[in-house]
Amino acid sequence: MNDFQQKIYQRLVRYVAVDTTSDPASTVTPTTDAQISFAHQLAAEMKKIGLADVEVDEYGFVTGLLAATTDKSAPTIGLFAHMDTVSDYNGHDIRPVLHENYKGGPIVISEQKNMVLNEQTAARLMKCVGDNIVTADGNTLLGSDDKLGIAIIMTLAEHLLSHPEIAHGPVKIAFTIDEETGTGIGYFDVKKFAADFAYTVDGANLGDIDCGNFNADSFVIHITGKSCHPGSAKGFMANPVRIAADIVTSWPDDKLPETTEGEEGFILFKDVTGGLEKAEVQGLVREHDLTKFAKFKQLLINLIEQKRAKYPAAKIEIEFKEQYRNMRDILRARPQAMELLEKALQENKIEYRLTQARGGTDGAQMTFKGLPTPNIFAGYENPHGPYEWCSLNWAEKALHVLQSIVQNAVK
Ligand SMILES: [Zn+2]
């Protein structure tokens, strides 16, 4: 293992030892205190390696500055990774397992639980022969989403600080909270951060670049029924339970998360609650194209109107709430971030894919706040569960790509 990978690995091991699971049920920011203490741990390390202006703010965002080493003009570039891990699977007591110089074939994660990384569970791993692979031990997720991103950025910063002869402009670093709950980045002070553009290092496979994402709304359908004794209900009762079921099953089968992929949009019905008096259906609308997105919402509104006609005794209402929008158009209008990124990927001979994420990214929200922020790979796969693994070789490549960006940005 070379020096870069060694350092990235040592950091990953140190970072995943701290349980920073975020909590989607919490109403405070950050959602868990552990993120604050991890923030202070990272801040101490940032000061130790020589970063300037290191700060932890009231929410737990950690920021620091890698000062310019040249007087030439250069944009201020931001680098982001998130500190929290998802609550979908155990993130406590993570024990990373290193598989040095992977020989190919299956990797047994847990014999006892019959967990194996193979062609079915980790197709891309099969192509990583010779790489240094890290997995968990079957009891937890690995946490390389996104502690690998933090390790990459920290190792790059340390490298550049120990090589002042490498000319680069100012680089701002931020480690962020509550990415997995989607509730953190809204509290980040983009103005104060004052970067010209930025990158989140939170993508999966080698070469994956997210430069677009869904347009996203949530919705709630409120159904108020008309209840009475079932024995004398004929012609009178409007039953919210049945109406809710009717709405959900009337939505077209080919516009669901489980039947779509790539740039196809969907509606996810995620929660139904209620009884004979009233019911509530909650869901999400997702579509990459803004015009199609509006059509999707109209389709749901039309469906509600049909059900109003079918159940005149009931009251059925729908409300939408904006969640985030596709960053693609803004990245096209302010192309410097993507131009430098593509040049760096080519220089480092990385086959890359510009993808539209089937989800949101913190970068999408920051892009809309005025900081163009595409997402680059960190080098992990199967996040959010026990089959999560990462390649230290991929992570090292991410580091080199970021270094090329920072160097090439000097005019
Ligand atoms: Zn992540």
List its salient traits.
10 helices, Alpha-Beta Plaits, Aminopeptidase, binds zinc ion, 31% helix, 411 residues
Kindly describe this structure:
- The protein is of the alpha+beta class and 411 residues long.
- The chain folds into 2 domains: 3-213 and 326-408, 3-Layer(aba) Sandwich (Aminopeptidase), CATH 3.40.630.10; 215-324, 2-Layer Sandwich (Alpha-Beta Plaits).
- Helix content is 31%, strand content 24%.
- It has 10 helices and 18 strands.
- It has helices spanning 3-16, 33-49, 144-161, 190-193, 240-250, 290-310, 328-333, 336-347, 362-368, 392-408, and strands at 52-56, 62-66, 77-82, 97-99, 107-110, 115-117, 133-135, 171-176, 197-203, 208-212, 215-224, 266-274, 278-287, 315-324, 353-356, 375-377, 380-381, 389-391.
- Helix 1 (3-16) packs across helix 10 (392-408).
- 44% of the residues are buried.
- The structure holds zinc ion.
- Residues 82, 145-146, 179, 202 line the site of zinc ion.
